[in-house]
Task: inverse folding
């Protein structure tokens, strides 16, 4: 099962509209551990965010809150491996599950 999941991630990571970044374990504590979120830019240029928790999902359109999440994403991205490094790591993980 894990092999198939890693292979699926690797496949999706090669799509032009997908950016997959792995944050290595040695980074330690980082803002992404607080839970998943998405920041999206709409066709009109407005930015919105979607935040998930175990109990609910929330759409955020308040400019200051979206900006905070945007900065949080940049901090996460700064600690992550590059796209190529992330893809290689995922492929290595897939190969390790036989």
Result:
């Amino acid at each position: 099962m894990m092999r198939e999941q890693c292979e699926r991630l690797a496949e999706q990571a090669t799509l032009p509209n997908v950016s997959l970044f792995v944050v290595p374990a040695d980074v330690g504590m980082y803002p992404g551990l607080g839970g998943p979120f998405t920041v999206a830019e709409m066709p009109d240029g407005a930015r919105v965010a979607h935040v998930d928790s175990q109990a609910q999902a929330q759409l955020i359109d308040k400019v200051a809150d979206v900006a905070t999440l945007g900065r949080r994403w940049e901090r996460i991205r700064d600690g992550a491996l590059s796209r190529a490094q992330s893809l290689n790591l995922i492929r290595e993980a897939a190969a390790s599950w036989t």
